[in-house]
Model the fold of this input.
Amino acid sequence: MITEIVTFQLKASADLGDINSPTTQAIRNSLSVVLADSKAPSAYYGQLLKKPDTAILFVNWPSNDEHERFKNSPSYETHFKHMAAVINMQEPISVLNVPFTPSEDPSPALGLHDKVGVTEVIFLYCGAGFARSEITSAAEKIRPVMERSGAQAMVGGWAAETQLPIPEAGEGEKGEVYVNVGGWTDAEAYGRSQESEKIQQSIHDLLETKDIRYSEFNLVKLFPM
Done:
């Protein structure tokens, strides 16, 4: 399994928790096409709690081959038409494809079960010549600390894309990104965990890793299809 993560700015303000919102309906119609006409087992959509004009999608594909087959199928045009109606094309769109570990399926961290109400999505961008094993090891050390502090599920992995622009870096600087995803019961539980000295120290140690050029921590409310 590989998970496609698409982050984009909405064309118009919307509450994606409102099933009657035209923006929500367009996104759901788009993902319905994906699920109906491919072997993708699940998909989730939502928006950043602190930046509600930014939406994020997760689509779990059984393989790269199935993803490519869908992109070359007649259904893809319908899927894209729905998405184009809600995406602000004047702003950057991020598309990442991530094979997660220790579980290939990130759904428990995305809200598959009722015990997960919000999801933290962390992006760690690394520049040229970095030591992937060092970053992976530092990120994995956070998981048990987070889980002891209330995280219900947590996975991480490197995006398949290797020439990604690094935000707020020098012009033309590119690298790779590690994505960590963790599920929490609600925003309040997540907030309390962030007050833990152990978590604060773990995050500090992670961000002190010399090869991380940019980091982004986002709390997201996701909705399953």
About this structure: The chain has a mean pLDDT of 93. The chain is about 30% helix and 30% strand. The two ends are 18 Å apart (CA to CA). The CA atoms of residues 55 and 72 lie 25 Å apart.
